[in-house]
Amino acid sequence: MAILKAKLSSRGPQGYSAYDIAVQHGYTGTEDDWVNNWLRGTIISITTDSENNLVMTDINGNIFSVPVPSLSESADSAAQAKQSAADAKALADIATQDKDDIAGVKEAVEAAYHAMLFDIIGPPPEEMSNGHFIVGAGPAVM
Predict the structure, then answer these.
(1) Distance of CA 106 to the CA centre of its chain
(2) How far apart are CA 111 and CA 115, in angstroms?
């Protein structure tokens, strides 16, 4: 632990307060308004109470009490967040696989569609030069 020693001497000249400077720059409210509106929330002490709440006191004497979760509650929350992230990743992986499956189904449907067209109207002109088709007949006759 470091020990700081200071020598006290007489006070120097009084400077401007934050309120005085604000007035110089156009603030028109009272000093009480300045303290209540601008300094509110400046915490000057923090303790815990018997129920493990964090108790903070601001510069104006306002007291704020905030429940602090226990270590086990915090650990449970962290575990739930981790599980939630894992679940989200698993769902994203499933969605990606579904997208790939849909693309495969689309290709199969397009192939079946072209085969039906072949049965109904015959092969496309670019296939006619192969010589493996009977004109006007579908694959069932070949």
Answers:
(1) 35
(2) 6
